[in-house]
Amino acid sequence: MKNRLREWRDGLLKDTSGGSQLEGSFLNDSNQQFQNIFYKMRPALSLNGFTSRQLRLIQSVTKKHFKDLASVRVEGESSCSQQLVVYTDSESDRDLLKKEVMDDYRRQAEMKIKAAIGFRHVIDLLSSEKKLIVGHNCFLDLAHIHSKFLGPLPLEAEEFVYSVNKCFPYIIDTKILLNTNNILKQRMKKSKTSLSSAFLSLCPQIAFASKESCNLTFSSSVKVEVQVDDTRSSSWISGVKHEAGYDAFMTGCVFAQACNLLGIDFKLYSPSENLACNERLQKHANLLYLSWINGDIIDLSTGHRTAESLRCRDLKKSQTGILFENIVLIWGFPSKLKTAVIKDRISKVFGPTSVTSICRLDETAVFVQFSKLKLVADFLVVKETLERSNDAFSVLHPLSTILGGNTCAASYETYKDICSSPISKLLFADQAEAVGIRWKTKLVERKEELETEEQDNFHEENAANTISVYVEQN
């Protein structure tokens, strides 16, 4: 190999016109392992078909015996690395070659990083331009964005809102806007403020793709055009609710119509101006629902929480209060099991008024709120008893339908423990398994038993103190 490289190098020095005779001798190689090329305006040999060990040997020989030859590795057009031996006519030229190769490495690395970043470019652009971000009940959406593009979710809500506000200083939640602005509340009347309901109420001409429905509802509306396949349409309908793209479309339409109802003229704002600074929107900006059920709102600008929203009182009238200590979490049951069946089976055992409400987390988990705290412990005891038994009674028991197989149950505290884990899975049953839950039932102590035990301890201590005082006095 040393002789082959010397022959090629000497040929270059003898024939300044390019070494046509030498070029022929290399190109006539049956395996095409050596090919004469030019790399950055310098004569070079392309090495093909060598093993990694052979290439390391060539690199070592080149470095040890040839001061005017340099072994370099470059990325080919198909992202495959190519090994070259390049001729340099001086030490300064050799240093220049090294710099050029390093610059290429850096550019290629930056291109790979840029390609890998993907959608993160959009997040960075929105943040750097301080664009107004509009969402509908978007606390969870922002949590996902933070987790995927900004960093791990903080443990405290205050740390989370500080981080979000630093990246997105202007956010408007259309659900809060519809629930807190008097003009929009009057326009919505008593309609629900879910995204699909708000879209139907405020944008019927788009929702029904009909100009007649628009005229029947209100004449003043924002015209929305959507570009599809190089054509623009004002009556475009594609998608269903809960599809990300169509939900974003509905949110934009609801916000545009809400601004129109508030008397905000979009034509008066240039792209560089921030709509969130409008006085009609300012007091609604940077507010998010921490809990829509409880009406808790957090201010992204200050981190302060509001215990009650303007609509929380109405919610309390229409919804039964949530008592977390009365909740049992059940998960791992068959996905086809309906909520009504779960309530029916539990009611058959504990009474028709035993279950206050059932809330489904996903297809694998539900919250069951009992009317009494005592029923939580009773339910878990019954479940554990049925698991241990394998007789005819346990098979025919009404709860066997929902508590068989891999079904697990515990109090609400277990739910908080599972959700506090950094592990995240799509379904709750998978989340619990990933966290390491191996038991099927976690019993809780009855409150009455705890109170009785505390009273007994108090009486025993009191009696002991009384005897001690009596003995000392006598």
Please describe what this structure looks like.
The chain is an alpha+beta fold. The chain has 4 domains: 116 residues, no CATH class; 193 residues, no CATH class; 120 residues, RRM (RNA recognition motif) domain (Alpha-Beta Plaits); 26 residues. The protein has 22 helices and 15 strands. Helix 10 crosses helix 13. The chain is flat, with a radius of gyration of 36 Å. The termini are far apart.
Keywords:
474 residues; Alpha-Beta Plaits; 4-stranded antiparallel beta sheet; 15 strands; flat; 22 helices; alpha+beta
Characterize this entry briefly:
The protein has 474 residues and is an alpha+beta fold.
Instruction: Indicate how many domains the architecture comprises.
Output: 4
Q: What is the count of helical runs?
A: 22
Mean pLDDT: 79
- Rg, Cα atoms, Å: 36 Å
Given helix and strand content, the structural type is: alpha+beta
Distance between the termini: 111 Å
Strand neighbour order, sheet with most strands: 1-2-4-3
Q: Using DSSP, what is the number of strands?
A: 15
Strand proportion, as a percent range, falls in: 15-25%
Spans of at least 5 consecutive residues whose pLDDT stays below 50 are 17-25, 210-219, 308-319, 466-474
**Helicity level, as a percent range?**
40-55%
Major sheet description: 4 strands, antiparallel
Report the principal-axis shape: flat
